[in-house]
């Protein structure tokens, strides 16, 4: 199983520099011609090139999709009349502008993972980053709320391919118990963007009046220009899938690429890419596990997006902080979330557990939400914001690791990544609706919705972990073979 891709490489790749057969063992237990120190250097090189690059791009992605709240309190709401209820309904124009992004963002995610496999991550990801940066600049020149909403629809279409492609790409490079920390670092960079976005937005607001443009417009224009720049840099820094990496940019040589492929094959036996089959790709939908992961992600993103879109507004309306203070007070909870996130990723990888990590994060939300909603003072409620932000955001890489550990097969993995993130987009729709302007200043319906999502996640994790435990026991007794997918058995077991 560990040598499924040998035919792609020269025969002398099986020997070291003096023609001897390799006798060293990797940390996973298969033969390799690299010393343990060399193996670590290869992995760290991939970390620096891959994880950091996609993390920085995700940083700007998250900033671009959530800077609407910063612009809202910087004058956009008043200038574009966004607080007006749409056609007399209970939905404000601001909620519609946030909502429409997720329509295209959700619909176009499943085909995106097939496209990125065809075009390659460098070509696909760098193009869509540059393109949505241009859309962001256009948002800075919107004259009415309808134009802003239309640009948000296009933004959702372009960003739809980014997150699931990154989740899929990272899962192809790392073994199951390496990926938790990497997902955490990837998402931490996004959390730090959320932490700094308010401060950056406040700084850009000071350009108010320059070139005849109000401050909120400069938020979109400057951040859009930065996005386009990073997209161009990303073309040179991004790496392709492992089976393509020996053909491009030579950041690893062919022997090192083979080591990575053998390592993934030894872990779960699915490094070999099968020809695309629409039936097999869509046939993955029959697996109930995929929808369990998707619902976990939906519940998590409902809470995290609700915070991302409404936290500055809640800080001003509910807690009484000024605009400048609210923009800056967004940062500390996200910085705290980054610490919790990496700690949970590290513990999950070290002890090879996933479900308990998700449960712990949801418990943080269930403790923090009542404090945030019913605390007796603004300081106490702000403490609740720390717990909710840490729990909800830490659960995003935790949920990604949970599904990555328990899925085999390249196209099933691609479908699962798209479905997971697609339901995350639906969670974004829900998150953009839960804190309604008519519920100010307490926002109790939104708090109840977030509490319900946290409780549902605990139930789903308990059910899936129990099912995995039973399946592992049957596999240990030889009664079933887990995630076979037409391949020889690799002794695969689910991660609880």
UniProtKB/TrEMBL annotation:
Localization annotation: Membrane
Transmembrane helix in keyword set: yes
One GO cellular component, as annotated: membrane
Residue ranges of every copy of the Major facilitator superfamily (MFS) profile domain listed in the record: 50-472
Top-level division of the source organism's lineage: Eukaryota
Major location (coarse): membrane
Gene Ontology molecular function: transmembrane transporter activity
The protein, known as: MFS general substrate transporter
Record lineage: Eukaryota, Fungi, Dikarya, Ascomycota, Pezizomycotina
């Amino acid at each position: 199983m560990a040598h499924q891709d040998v035919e792609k490489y020269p025969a002398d790749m099986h020997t070291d520099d003096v023609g001897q057969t390799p006798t060293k063992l990797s940390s996973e237990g298969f033969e390799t011609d690299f010393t343990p120190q060399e193996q670590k250097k290869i992995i760290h090189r991939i970390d620096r090139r891959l994880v950091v690059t996609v993390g920085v791009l995700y940083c700007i992605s998250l900033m671009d999709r959530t800077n609407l709240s910063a612009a809202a309190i910087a004058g956009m709401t008043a200038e574009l009349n966004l607080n007006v209820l749409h056609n007399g309904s209970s939905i404000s124009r601001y909620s519609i502008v946030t909502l429409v992004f997720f329509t295209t963002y959700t619909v176009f995610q499943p085909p995106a993972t097939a496209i990125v496999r065809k075009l390659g991550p460098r070509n696909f990801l760098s193009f869509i980053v540059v393109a949505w940066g241009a859309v962001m600049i256009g948002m800075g020149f919107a004259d009415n709320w309808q134009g802003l909403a239309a640009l948000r629809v296009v933004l959702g279409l372009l960003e739809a391919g980014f997150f699931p492609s990154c989740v899929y790409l990272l899962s192809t490079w790392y073994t199951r118990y390496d990926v938790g920390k990497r997902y955490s670092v990837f998402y931490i960079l996004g959390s730090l963007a959320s932490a700094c976005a308010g401060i950056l937005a406040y700084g850009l607001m000071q350009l108010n009046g320059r070139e005849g443009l109000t401050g909120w417009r400069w938020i979109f224009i400057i951040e859009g220009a930065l996005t386009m720049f990073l997209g161009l840099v990303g073309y040179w820094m991004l790496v392709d899938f492992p089976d393509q990496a020996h053909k491009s940019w030579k950041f690893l040589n062919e022997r090192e690429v083979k080591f990575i492929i053998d390592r993934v094959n030894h872990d779960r036996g699915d490094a070999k890419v099968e020809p695309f089959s629409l039936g097999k790709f869509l046939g993955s939908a029959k697996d109930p596990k995929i929808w369990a992961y998707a619902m976990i992600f939906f519940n998590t993103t409902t809470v995290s997006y609700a915070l991302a879109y409404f936290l500055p507004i809640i800080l001003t309306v509910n807690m009484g902080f000024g605009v400048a203070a609210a923009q800056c007070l967004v940062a500390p909870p996200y910085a705290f979330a980054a610490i919790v996130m990496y700690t949970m990723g590290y513990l999950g990888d070290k002890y090879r557990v996933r479900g308990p990590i998700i449960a712990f994060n949801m418990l943080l939300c269930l403790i923090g939400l009542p404090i945030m909603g019913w605390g007796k003072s603004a300081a106490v409620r702000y403490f609740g914001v720390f717990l909710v932000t840490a729990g909800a955001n830490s659960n995003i890489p935790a949920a990604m690791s949970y599904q990555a550990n328990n899925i085999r097969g390249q196209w099933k993995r691609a479908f699962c990544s798209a479905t997971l993130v697609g339901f995350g987009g639906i969670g974004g729709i829900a998150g953009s609706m839960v804190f309604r302007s008519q519920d100010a200043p307490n926002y109790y319906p939104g708090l109840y919705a977030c509490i319900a999502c946290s409780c549902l996640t605990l139930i789903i994790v308990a059910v899936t972990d129990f099912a995995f435990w039973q399946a592992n026991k049957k596999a240990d007794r030889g009664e079933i073979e887990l995630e076979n997918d037409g391949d020889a058995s690799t002794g695969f077991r689910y991660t609880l």
